[in-house]
TrEMBL record:
Superkingdom in the source lineage: Bacteria
Record-given protein name: ABC transporter
Keyword terms of this UniProt record: Membrane, Transmembrane, Transmembrane helix
Keyword Zinc-finger: no
Amino acid sequence: MIALTRYSLSMLVRGQAYIAPFVLFGTAIVVLTTNDLGPITGTYSACALTQFVCGLWFTVAIVNTEDRAQRSMTVVAAGGQRRVLAANALAATVVAGGLTAIGVAYPAFSGTHTVTAADLAVGALAQLVCGVAGVAVGLLCSRVVIPKAGYAVFASLAAIGALTMIPPVPPVSPVMTLLSGPEPAGRMLAPIAAFGAFAVAMLVASVLIAEQVARRQD
């Protein structure tokens, strides 16, 4: 699995498909958090939203790096579609972890905030939760599930709208609402961790669904 994950990351770098989502992430973080005032947890809400969108984009980029013939060979060599999809998801999660480090540190130094350890923990956990949710959605919007690019774009936009604008739909919207609320950071850890478990369940389900769809298309 480690070798497959490294292969997924290397293909992402070689194809330079990481540039657009990384530029989006960097631009959004700088624009939305530089010289920001007030509770830093509110600032982390914008970072979490950015993580979700970029996590989705990075995942699609990772899965779509190989064309159909190349992916078929990778699946055979790896021993199955599920292993390749799991490696793709793990690679995208690694990327989300790297972006989380930036998304937690930059707002703390660029704005005027009183930052505690609980604030940093909440910010990191919330961004990881939204990043993993983005990976889960990205798998279902990739070429493996939706072969036509136009339909994939519409599906991605619909998913982003549903998970960020409909409050009851977990985990992204509730996490953003929680971060923007008046609760102290210490009290946010437990509910955000619960949403994290939901995001992991989403990811597992997405891998299984993508595997079944890919088998039928093959």
